[in-house]
């Protein structure tokens, strides 16, 4: 089949995304935990980054001297921004010092606020579908934070008395949790000490100030409700902000009894763990070894794949992926991760391509999985194109746009490596006793935002597939 025919075939497959979206009305309930917050989204140009660096009197040597991947000062924050800008990567660092929070308020501002955190973003996005009930966990829910949730009656949380209410009208706590999402564009330039840096890929740096999340405060009302009502899907995240110096490993391990109770209460449910950029290696290792083996599905991007390789001591694969994050190398990585962690399903979302490896007896068929991944690719492209999925019609805004040549090329290389020629044509194949599903994506050249992209992908890929 020629490249043009392959692209036409995939565009025909993508044209079925509206049908997949309609089927989501059959889902009764999704619970999304544990982190929801306010995202303050800031788009910084290279020139604006330079001004902040100059204001803090930092040299190139200072910026490249990263002693820890946490934010104890404005200098630390700018080191993280500089690293992600120059490498075109995404990372999330935490700030626990109130003075850093105050600096960000003054110098970055809160001009554009929206619901943030994996749990919050996923819940907000899924509420735009016809899922009957989306239950969101929030460590803190002030009037300001609650108002960032969409005004949707199917999106609910809990007030101080434990009453289930529409999430957007709750006023439970005084404090608000704010995460700054600092975005930058591919091709933008930054000159420091006479050396020019060009951003290789549009991406973002996340600076998290979230005391309730650092202490992993869990709303008992959420736990009681999800233990006494049938839930179809549980989406888990929020561990990335934990510190091993503040009982982070224990907090991760303490989630296991919660998951066990969920599975008892809703035995047919699917529990998905969204792996996020976790800087504390001890916490990251605990997530990989103590949580991932006990859920039904995990989601990762390129960086998170390498993070797991690092803490599971798969050093050779780590170096291969770091030097060349191609579809073949990343497939080798997630295949090894799946086997090492014994997780029934793992999904990778990389630039231009999504790949899923799942057990043969997984409750979602390869075809349904592919359809969910196609819907996810459409929704993610729509989010990049519009800037935010804020209305039901936004989900399919990118429907009709062509899949990318980058994605098709990566898929072709993968199909050759796996000796599965049908993979390039229909996106489904087999490898060593597992089902393989791979889908090229729609790439928006100048995305208006990348915030919550991975969360959108994982939510629609899995939940849209059943």
TrEMBL record:
It comes from the Bacteria. One of its GO terms (biological process) is glycolytic process. The keyword Magnesium applies. Its EC number is 2.7.1.146. Coiled coil: none annotated. Keywords: Cytoplasm, Glycolysis, Kinase, Magnesium, Metal-binding, Transferase. Pfam families: ADP_PFK_GK. InterPro entries: ADP_PFK/GK (IPR007666), Ribokinase-like (IPR029056). GO terms for molecular function: ADP-specific phosphofructokinase activity; metal ion binding. This is Phosphofructokinase. It comes from uncultured Alphaproteobacteria bacterium.
């Amino acid at each position: 089949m020629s490249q043009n025919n392959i692209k036409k075939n995939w565009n025909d497959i993508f044209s079925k995304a509206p049908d997949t979206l309609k089927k989501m009305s059959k889902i009764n309930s999704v619970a999304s935990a544990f982190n929801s917050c306010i995202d303050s989204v800031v788009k910084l140009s290279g020139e604006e980054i330079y001004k902040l660096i100059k204001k803090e009197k930092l040299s190139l040597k200072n910026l490249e001297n990263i002693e820890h991947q946490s934010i104890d000062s404005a200098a630390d924050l700018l080191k993280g921004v500089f690293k992600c800008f120059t490498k075109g990567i995404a990372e999330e660092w935490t700030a626990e010092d109130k003075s850093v929070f105050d600096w960000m308020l003054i110098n970055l501002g809160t001009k554009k606020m929206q619901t943030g955190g994996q749990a919050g973003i996923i819940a907000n996005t899924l509420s735009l579908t016809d899922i009957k009930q989306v239950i969101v966990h929030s460590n803190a829910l002030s009037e300001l934070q609650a108002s960032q949730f969409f005004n949707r009656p199917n999106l609910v949380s809990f007030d101080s008395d434990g009453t289930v209410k529409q999430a957007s009208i709750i006023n439970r706590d005084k404090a608000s949790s704010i995460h700054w999402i600092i975005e930058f564009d591919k091709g933008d330039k930054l000159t420091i000490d006479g050396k020019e840096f060009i951003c290789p890929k549009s991406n973002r740096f996340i600076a998290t100030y979230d005391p309730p999340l650092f202490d992993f405060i869990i709303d008992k009302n959420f736990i009681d409700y999800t233990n006494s009502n049938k839930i179809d899907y549980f989406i888990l995240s929020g561990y990335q902000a934990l510190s091993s110096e503040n009982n982070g490993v224990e907090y991760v391990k303490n989630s296991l009894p919660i998951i066990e109770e969920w599975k008892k209460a809703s035995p047919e449910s699917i529990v998905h763990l969204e792996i996020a950029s976790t800087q504390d290696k001890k916490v990251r290792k605990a997530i990989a070894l103590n949580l991932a083996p006990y859920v039904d599905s995990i989601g990762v991007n390129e960086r998170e794949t390498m993070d797991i390789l690092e803490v599971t001591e798969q050093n050779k694969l780590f170096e291969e992926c770091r030097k060349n994050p191609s579809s073949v190398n990343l497939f080798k990585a997630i295949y090894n991760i799946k086997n090492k962690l014994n997780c029934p399903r793992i999904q990778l979302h990389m630039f231009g391509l999504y790949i899923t490896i799942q057990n043969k007896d997984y409750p979602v068929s390869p075809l349904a999985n592919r359809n969910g991944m196609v819907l996810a690719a459409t929704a993610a492209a729509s989010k990049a194109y519009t800037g935010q999925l804020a209305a039901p019609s936004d989900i399919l805004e990118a429907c009709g746009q062509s899949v990318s040549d980058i994605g098709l090329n990566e898929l072709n290389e993968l199909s050759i490596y796996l000796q599965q020629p049908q993979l390039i044509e229909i996106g489904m194949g087999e490898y060593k006793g597992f089902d393989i599903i791979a889908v090229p994506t729609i790439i928006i050249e100048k995305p208006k935002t990348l915030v919550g992209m991975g969360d959108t992908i994982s939510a629609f890929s899995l939940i849209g597939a059943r």
